Amino acid sequence: MVSRSVRLAVIPGDGIGPEVVAEGLKVLDAVSPSSGLTFERTSYDLGAARWHRTGETLPDAVLDELRQQEVILLGAVGDPTVPSGTLERGLLLRARFELDHYVNLRPVKLFPGVSTPLAGVTTDDIDMVVIREGTEGPYTGVGGVVRKGTQHEVATQESVNTAYGVERVIRYAFEVAAGRPRKHLTLVHKDNVLTFAGDLYQRTLKQVGEEYPQVTTAYCHVDAATMFFVSQPQRFDTIVTDNLFGDIITDLGAAVAGGIGLAASGNVNPDRTAPSMFEPVHGSAPDIAGQGKADPTATILSVAMLLDHIGAADAARRVERAVSDDLAERAAVGERSTTQIGDAIAKRVSG
Amino acid sequence: MVSRSVRLAVIPGDGIGPEVVAEGLKVLDAVSPSSGLTFERTSYDLGAARWHRTGETLPDAVLDELRQQEVILLGAVGDPTVPSGTLERGLLLRARFELDHYVNLRPVKLFPGVSTPLAGVTTDDIDMVVIREGTEGPYTGVGGVVRKGTQHEVATQESVNTAYGVERVIRYAFEVAAGRPRKHLTLVHKDNVLTFAGDLYQRTLKQVGEEYPQVTTAYCHVDAATMFFVSQPQRFDTIVTDNLFGDIITDLGAAVAGGIGLAASGNVNPDRTAPSMFEPVHGSAPDIAGQGKADPTATILSVAMLLDHIGAADAARRVERAVSDDLAERAAVGERSTTQIGDAIAKRVSG
Ligand SMILES: CC(C)[C@H](C(=O)O)[C@@H](O)C(=O)O
Ligand SMILES: CC(C)[C@H](C(=O)O)[C@@H](O)C(=O)O
């Protein structure tokens, strides 16, 4: 076993962020020794408190430091005392854009023992990976407002999509699909209405698909996709979609796969020109912060994705298996606190 | 009882459109006499066949004729032999925009006896009305493409939102909310990312809300809304949202309320400067066309909405009750064909 040191940035953030991150790090610490990994950790004080203190969300100097890291673990940002969007855009989206996280990787998987709001579905029915584009679409912030506050106000938002951006995320999706047993890739879009962007996605799917004859492809409108997520989730294996549609369907995916407390994600820069960032899909949930009620599982599964990203696949599988076993056990023994869940999973992986 | 004649345009469309429209008209014919209504019907041959024959989707001359009608009943348009979007935009969206259907009214209601994919929810849990903006947002068609087909292609889509457009749909939503027992209105948007449009919606909600102190309001991000649709649908009573978000959440709403075969909608021009258009939410479903498998219930419920729009509330309630009774009966006797369902409901309302 070769030993290796990894520079890890930690952004606990707001609300339940610090609590769930603590458990994620606990599991990382537990799994690391036997994998020959050590982490050189730097914690970054970013989020609501800093904004209140200094007005900063993600200062350039901090961003420059983050670029020197190998990976980032983020808890959650956002707080009712900060105007909606300030931290989300100033910190989270800024990091995704500046660090070129063009793949937003979001598995949607029902683990054994987890209860889903859907009647009669089994773990075989819900097992997909959503590849959400992360650096363009309606998330660019392009747009504006004229005559604000008057009855003649016009507010626009622009979705910007480029061949460069669409091609690279679709190629990544084909790679993921090719590595999965079903080898099936569905493009989710709304090409009958968003014709320019939809057409670019469709043409690119076709072109890149020629290089992956082993992968079957399908297309599904986003509205129909939400319907199939609840009525026939087994339709989907790998999904590629734009930034906004991906945001929407992965929250829905989290809900059908047992809740937002379990949904992990990676903001991935596959070219490794900057660090990738792993985070639970859930938000900062200020209403339950500090009460030990937050489920750290999504963060722990994000740690597993982080491990995969740095090439520690064995450790990643161990964390996933530990989570899976813990979830099955939880179904039997009932609810536990944030720390108890972290402890239990850490114990399993350190064995 | 005053007798009244109503000019009704019928656009059967493609796929299962003509089949479900036939049943809708059957029910309309059955309920009309005892309500003192007669319909002066004109059928319009629009859809895939006409496009193949003439290249036309909704010619100006036909649009002018439609403007002279009082209401429109539409089945479904779209066909795999026609490029995606051609009929949807050229016919359906063109009608919505030209006839100023700024309210797209979509009830999401679980009827007794109908099975939902959600475990453990009752008819009390799913009973909402979604008011989707119908004439702006990302549906304007604004946008374009440069360097098409090259690796430098850029494709844009613009969401256009105006104070004029947002105010009128939000005002309508408050009116609907005020008339419902719970009097609760939720704005669904994504204001932390689509800041210009989201801010316009938020400010308008607040302003117009001052005139409706009896209505409580809430805000929910669209991604979270999809989650709540499956995990806590009882959160919602009346929803107001933009054109694209409304498209997405009402398909999901249809799925949780028992399927797309039951979801009705109205494209409403509340100012009555042009005819409103009623249609099932579902598409043309070419795969099951002509087999008597299509469920005409969504069209029949759209006919009930049409009756409400023309002021025939009693007739509307009778159709709704008949549908509700029929659905409860269907749960007992099992599946029936398109015609059988239409016959059964027609029989109930003609009594
Ligand atoms: C917080 C918000 C900006 C973010 C997004 O919209 O991407 C979140 O919903 C997510 O999915 O990670
Ligand atoms: C057919 C399509 C253009 C349409 C829409 O997106 O509005 C449909 O999905 C609907 O919801 O009525």
TrEMBL record, chains A, B:
Annotated Isopropylmalate dehydrogenase-like domain ranges read 7-345
* Entry keyword annotation includes NAD: yes
Pfam families reported for this sequence: Iso_dh (PF00180)
Q: Does the keyword Transmembrane helix apply?
A: no
Q: What top-level branch of life does the organism fall under?
A: Bacteria
PROSITE patterns in the cross-refs? IDH_IMDH
Q: Which UniProt keywords apply?
A: Manganese, Metal-binding, NAD, Oxidoreductase
The cofactors required by this protein are: Mg(2+); Mn(2+)
Cited Gene3D superfamilies: Isopropylmalate Dehydrogenase
Known NCBIfam families for this protein?
A: PRK03437.1 (NF002898)
Record protein name field? 3-isopropylmalate dehydrogenase
- Organism classification: Bacteria, Bacillati, Actinomycetota, Actinomycetes, Streptosporangiales
